[in-house]
Design brief:
338 residues; Nucleoside Triphosphate Pyrophosphohydrolase; 7-stranded mixed sheet; 5-stranded parallel sheet; binds nicotinamide-adenine-dinucleotide; alpha/beta; 22% strand; 36% helix; Rossmann fold
Amino acid sequence: MSKEYQFGVYIGRFQPCHNGHWQTIELALSKVERLIIVLGSHRVAMDIRNPWTTAERADLIKQCLSAEQQAQVTFLPMRDWLYSDNLWLTAIQQQVSEITGESDSIAIFGHHKDSSSYYLDLFPQWKFIETGNYAKLNSTNIREAYFSHQQCPTDNVPPAVHDFLKTFLNTDRYQTLCQEFQFLKKYQEIWSVAPYPPIFVTTDVVVVQSGHVLVVRRKASPGKGLIALPGGFLQPDETIVDGMLRELKEETRLKVPAAVLKGSIVDSYVFDNPGRSLRGRTITHAYFIQLKSGELPQVKGSDDAEKAWWMSLADLYAHEDRIYEDHFQIIQHFISKV
Ligand code: NAD
């Protein structure tokens, strides 16, 4: 018997896939001939919000599916464009239409759980099917219990996910994520006594010369060991440009005079995605410094940076999944213009 729709689309992070997701997948498979599961936040660096890779997430969902269901499902890894829904939509439209061709029999499944579900309304060309909320489950609570109590969820996730999470308890990655979780919890507790939720102001800088970007390796949590832009919190007595130059010098000891750096600023932008930092609401003022081509100036990691180095633009793209917070997107924003 033919199904109601030729194609279905289901977008999510599935960090991890729980019974609410699974109910939706089963519902969708009963209504569509072929289901496209869009695995969002592809290639973001591991943190407590996105602990598992795209391959792990796809594999887990696959393990929950029967052989017949597997034949119905196509996975579509999809990276984020935190500062451009239009670029994200372009990628989804292009990649979905490569699968669906000219078909106009397409449904999109999802649940408006909170304001973060706004993206479900960006696909007027497809029939939206609201799935409702299953047992008030959400991945955030599951992750919090998992990383704080060191306990595996049992009732709320499909058996294959439970088995995976149980094995994952014994990995170094799990220990790293638990430490990161504790760090962030403590950080948020310290600020919880403030009369209003704090809004932090930071600076970051993209210094480019001859196809290379100046980057650092983070010495401490959050994001210990990840690649990042030089930057940090603004001090009470400095302007934003001065704060940026101070952080740049402290973390990289870049051997270029401050006046030359200041004169080489070609662009700046405020990056303010509300979810960009797990520490809390953090608005960063980022600058773009383009230095004259030639031999790359000496740098040396210090202060919060374990290491500082010039990374080729090609390497940067290859290491996207090792780059802290939205720093890859900040770099992309500036270098795509010049
Ligand atoms: P998710 O795994 O939290 O949820 C996936 C779907 O399942 C959602 O429709 C959600 O409402 C639904 N769901 C959750 N709990 C449920 C329950 N108990 N019962 C029934 N349904 C339930 O994933 P998400 O965070 O919503 O994924 C969206 C993805 O799209 C992310 O990767 C995000 O970064 C990406 N995105 C990117 C952009 C951009 O790059 N510009 C914009 C919007 C969204």
